[in-house]
Amino acid sequence: MIFQSVSTMAISTASLASLIDLGLHHPTMTDAELRACCEKAKKLGVASVCIKPYAVPLAAELLHGSQVAVGTVIGFPHGSNATEIKAAEAKLACNEGAVELDMVVNIGKVMSEDWDYVQRDIKAVLDVARQHKAILKVIFENDYLTRDKWKIKLCEICGKLGVDFVKTSTGYGFIKQPDGSFKTQGATEHDVALMRKHTPASVRIKAAGGVRTQADALRMQQLGCTRIGASDPEPIITGAKSVGAGY
To answer: What is the pTM of this model?
Structure first.
């Protein structure tokens, strides 16, 4: 993803780090890698880690006493779990130490415009989050939502329910290309601006997928984002050249 250039002067590394949720949910990540990344999160001073669900207790142990919040994903990556399973997954995550939940909407139900189902699905997880004083971020997976009206309706539902964040993407919304390959686009300026326009100020915005450089992150911040999902945070924080890792 290439965003419009933005001046990076007078931006502290601490302020950039505070935007970042360090994504640790790639299926190939080993326990050793998860441990190392939790330690990195503490050193960098990021806002949170978003770790694979089974590893929430590990992250809670490693990050105890730090300023880095423990987050995890719910219904990841396609949102198709039954609502009862999403709620149970959220409850277990909170009981094991998660204080931030990134939930994927039921994408097929959104595209079917079954808005009552979509609202009940989100509310079930939101209710669990509120019971445990956890933050809920609702992932739209905009790569699949080819009609702006679907995204706008999701913004309206999330605003009505009072979720904490709406989020652009999982980073794993791979779309088949004409040549047979699969590609994910992730956060776009259009989508972030649309989401900011159609959600109340009390609902914050998280951009994920394709935000890999300092300029990318600053542009997303200008458009209204207060969190950035990244699995390779150093180029964003320090301005170092990305090695192409991360989502």
So the answer is: 0.91
